[in-house]
């Protein structure tokens, strides 16, 4: 297919690369032109100087930027994605954003005869680079069926969660769960150090039981070593949790543990750990 990819950050850059390597004709756009030029030099394909130009004549336009405002900026207006798309084309937004902005963009797209899916991802930078992301989508099943085989280039699993906005709601649940898991690991691993357990023997054992998780197996070594300069940044997690808090307020859902962990992440930010991985929660015990 002829596709576009808007946003070449730590996630979008490799995702667009997987699409090109899978045989699709990919045109990319990035606000920093040098990054688009670098991508073309590495993968081939083409780049455009506006989102609208990148979207011209594409079957699918993928997007992965920072937040609600960024999505609106690259989507709307004369130079935006929707302006360049043809009728019947599908806009797939991989940004972790609010369900409200997903519904807003879907409405605008549908009024123009274009289609929209919200499609946040889980798996982090490593998942994007290795092509094994999990994608949770909101929208129409017919549109999902058209897009899913294309997303297979960088996704190990994708699932339609419901109408537009449902993908973003599912991502909120994902982040809420991760916050709790990482805080549990931080407390458990700190306890293990205090009582003198061997980290490798401990995790080799408990990871095979009910306590096992992706976070445990992939983060325990760096958590014990006090290394956090990688991975999914605290700033990004707090942005995601803010979206969940706003949605919870509208639906009267209670998030007491998530609120507590968000406060711990704020402490890490205030101590200069804005770009540390979310597993840096354990650093609070190492002062």
The profile of the biggest β sheet is: 6 strands, parallel
Kindly report the name of the CATH homologous superfamily of the largest domain: NAD(P)-binding Rossmann-like Domain
Percent range for β-strand residues? 5-15%
CATH architecture descriptor text of the largest domain: 3-Layer(aba) Sandwich
- The CATH topology of the largest domain is Rossmann fold
Radius of gyration: 20 Å
Cross-sheet strand order for the largest sheet: 3-2-1-4-5-6
| Number of separate domains | 2
Helix content: 40-55%
Q: In terms of per-residue confidence, which ranges show pLDDT below 50 for 5 or more consecutive residues? A: none
The first-level CATH class of the largest domain is given as Alpha Beta
Q: Mean pLDDT, rounded to whole units?
A: 98
Number of beta-strand segments: 9
Succession of helices and strands: EHEHEHEHHEHEEHEHEHHHHH
Number of helical stretches of at least 4 residues: 13
Give the termini distance in whole angstroms: 53 Å
Provide key terms for this protein:
3-stranded mixed beta sheet; Rossmann fold; 2 domains; 6-stranded parallel beta sheet; alpha/beta; 287 residues
Structural write-up:
The protein starts with a strand and ends in a 17-residue tail after the last helix. Helix 6 links the parallel strand 5 and strand 6 (115-118). The model has no long low-confidence stretch (mean pLDDT 98). Helix content is 53%, strand content 14%. It has 287 residues and is of the alpha/beta class. The chain has a 6-stranded parallel sheet. A 3-stranded mixed sheet has the order 7-8-9. The radius of gyration is 20 Å and the shape is globular. It has helices at 12-21, 33-43, 51-55, 68-75, 81-84, 99-111, 124-130, 141-151, 166-195, 199-206, 214-225, 234-251, 256-270, and strands at residues 2-6, 25-29, 46-47, 60-63, 90-93, 115-118, 121-122, 133-138, 155-162. The chain has 2 domains: 2-162, 3-Layer(aba) Sandwich (Rossmann fold); 169-285, N-(1-d-carboxylethyl)-l-norvaline Dehydrogenase, domain 2. The chain is built from 13 helices and 9 strands.
């Amino acid at each position: 297919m002829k596709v576009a990819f808007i946003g070449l950050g730590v996630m979008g850059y490799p995702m667009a690369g997987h699409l090109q390597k899978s045989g699709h004709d990919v045109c990319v756009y990035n606000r920093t032109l040098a990054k688009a030029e670098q991508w073309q030099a590495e993968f081939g394909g083409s780049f455009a100087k506006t989102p609208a130009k990148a979207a011209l004549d594409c079957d699918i336009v993928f997007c992965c930027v920072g937040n609600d405002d960024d999505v609106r900026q690259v989507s709307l207006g004369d130079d935006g994605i929707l302006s360049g798309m043809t009728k019947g084309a599908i806009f797939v937004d991989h940004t972790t954003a609010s369900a409200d902005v997903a519904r807003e963009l879907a409405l605008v797209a549908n009024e123009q005869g274009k289609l929209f899916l919200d499609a946040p991802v889980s798996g982090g930078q490593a998942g994007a680079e290795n092509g094994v992301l999990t994608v949770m989508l909101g929208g129409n099943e017919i549109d999902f069926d058209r897009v899913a085989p294309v997303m297979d280039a960088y996704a190990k699993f994708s699932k339609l969660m419901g109408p537009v906005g449902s993908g973003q709601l599912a991502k909120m649940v994902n982040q809420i769960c991760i916050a709790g898991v990482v805080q549990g690991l931080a407390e458990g691993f700190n306890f293990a150090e205090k009582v003198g357990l061997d980290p490798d023997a401990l995790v080799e054992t408990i990871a095979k039981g009910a306590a096992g998780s992706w976070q445990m197996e992939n983060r325990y070594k760096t958590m014990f070593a006090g290394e956090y300069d990688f991975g999914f940044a605290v700033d990004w997690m707090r942005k995601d949790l803010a979206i969940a808090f706003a949605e919870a307020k509208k639906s009267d859902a209670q998030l007491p543990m998530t609120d507590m962990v968000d406060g711990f992440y704020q402490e890490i930010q205030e101590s200069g750990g804005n770009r540390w991985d979310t597993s840096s929660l354990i650093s609070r015990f190492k002062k």
